[in-house]
Amino acid sequence: MSERFTIKLDGRSCRAAPGETVLDVAGREGVSIPTLCHDPRLEPAGACRTCLVEVAGERRMQPACAFRVRPGMDVTTASERIDRHRKVLYGLYMADHRLDDAGLPEENGSANMLREQAARNGALALPPVNASRTGRPADTNPYIRFDPELCILCARCTRYCDEVEAVSAITLTERGASTTIGTIGNAGLLDTSCELCGGCIDTCPTGAMTEKKSYGIPHAELEAVRSTCNFCGVGCQVDLNIHAGRVVKVASPPPGETVNDGNLCVKGRFAYDFIHHEERLQVPMVRGRDGELHRASWEVAIRRAADGLLAVRAKHGADALGFVSSSRCTGEENYLMQKLSRAAFGTNNCHQCAAT
Amino acid sequence: MNEFMDKAGAHREEILERLEAEGGVTPETVRKIALATGVPEADVWGAGKFYSLIREPGRRVRVCTGLSCRVAGAAGRIEDLERAGESREEVSCIGQCDRAPAALDPELELIPGDGTRSAVLPDDTALPVNLGGADTDGYAALSKAREAGPEAVLDEIETSGLQGRGGAGFPAHVKWRAVREQAGSERYLVCNADEGEPGTFKDREIMERRPHLLLEGLAVAAATVGASEIIIYIRGEFRDARRSLETALKEAGDHLKQFNVRFANGHGAYICGEETALLESLEGKRGMPRLKPPFPTENGFRGKPTLIHNVETAACVPFIVHHGGQHFRDLGRTGAGTKLYCVSGHVTRPGVYELPLGITLDELVKTAGGYVGSPMAFSPGGASSGFLPMSLRSLPLDFPSLDKEGSMLGSAGVVVLNDTVDLVQAAGWQTRFFDDESCGQCAPCRIGARFLRNACGRFLADGDPEALLHVDDVGWEMEEGSICGLGMVAAKPLTSAMKHFPDAFRRRR
Question: What ipTM score was computed for the predicted complex, to two decimals?
Fold first, then answer.
């Protein structure tokens, strides 16, 4: 089964393994095939049709994202036929998409892959088809915005919600030109099983799913700074998106690069308001005799805490103390906390807030 | 239980039937079903909203707007209902083209119009399907097939040259062998009785007149490929046909006891006549076609090898078993066997006529009592086959001859139009049909069909051929880029009309 073999890609011999798709091999070989509905975390859908290639012996063009390689297969990724196909296809997408003044797919802040691909490849100019798709303008959830006029129905969001998150809060609904992304009874996301992980935003190729808080800030003006989410000990990597010196959005690094494989939870993706919050503690503080908090050095602050804990132990015994660590701590930090509790102060009264 | 079923929830297959029983999709019915089945609410909602018979609750008359019904005055029927203040819905072809203009009452029962009895040929035992004959329940062909064994049956099917009668004309024996040769004993036989191609109503007649013949054909196929479960996916609007089959199944008794035969209702989606969309529907999902490969023979219902046959294909099987493959093959003229040709529109006796595969339009219409008025155009195989001019009236109505003309035999739903019809209007109706019935999964079909509908509408409104600019490009892309056969042919009505009737598309004002 695992015997490797060769296939031909644009006339070149390439190594391939059973189970791989044409897109897998092309990616490895540096052959660029445009895709819109492809996300490596999801089962291939072959629905957007941008990645169609010619396979010798197949009458119809086949989706590179889903078509499995076979020994000796001969694949062509660039031809007159493929070029015409893409031009008309992009033209159709654009006839069903909100365009900007330049006549290109609009960007609402988020990157729009359709815009980039259509501009690069060229597209047939067609009149708008005026296929009305319903959105959920009354959805009051604080984070996720759906703009049906920028939706290309690639279903990455619904498939992500199902296949990766196993939440299935959103679905393809209606049929034909009216097909849209919906919820039961067109309810707001807060009234569904949605966990507000925002993975739909992350996987959306066109900006139809966007973050409400950072809506409209052009992606080109954002600077990404890689960091580690500190909401729990998993160590998810995040890209803090900085605009004018402030974090305005948190994105997940692309799938396959980091431990979280492009995923984040509601806290990691949306709970970043504390970063610039005016009440955020940024330096150690100790309470003075005047009852107010005063800035102090770490040495002074730690000494003050230690003195207080030791005084309680001296007066009431070690079991009068209890140590609770935070769910934001790592395993190592939790270990140190219980060490402090048991070895330094001599009590088993230690707990972690996420334990039940 | 396979991985797929776990993920979908074991009760997923029930949700569409449950929605039907609850009277349609509402947040309340969806919540109730989600609770009972464990299927996520959004999935129940999204699946239900796909199907026109369940997506909106409420009682209403459904008026057919298929080509034959339009030609026969569907508009008048709609106006009458409007005047009477009756709740109504204009729906895609309901497969009653021989009874045009047709409508269904709120219980989906056919509202009798004039001449509700379809015309067929008189009893003739030389005909394989023989719609006019007595439908006996002896199941002699099944006994004979059992005695002969699967290999012998397969050889006869191969010799017969039987091609799928659903539209694609794929050789039956290739599918049978493909399923039989699969590893693993869990295999299914699915009968595609979701007849929905506008102009086609032959499967309906088989089910109503020869239910035992169909069940026997299915049983022979199931026994041959090693399937124990037979699922008949039957168009939701075909209440009479389902009752007929249910009665026959009871009568068949012990003859079919080795099989688990069950019915599944369609819920109003033409696309579910496409075999992989049908499978999705059977699994309780939106009827969106799957990518092929893999084909259902390998990865079908529940991911298992599945033989899917059209009603007519299965109904040919008992004759082949009785009389041998060669005999069946010799009944055809340019292709193998006989074919049930449906004919409607401007002919004297619309009906279903079993004739040698490869007869011409003139011969067919002669059987149907002749043309009404002066014929101008015809569709040889439903909406999907587009329109052909009368200059091609002597073309054999078979698979390859029509392919060569850029048309298709398809389901052999022949519609004849005389010169009282505005062909642009007719093309517009067909184009609208495909737009209404596109599943919406892939852009070439979803957006392309809407583009064509708009283009046709604009030309009809202002008579300026500018509206038709790029129809060829879009039609080409729909054929090349769509996932399934619906998208591939959805431009045919308009592009074929423009090709063969250029005068109709010149500037009108």
Answer: 0.95
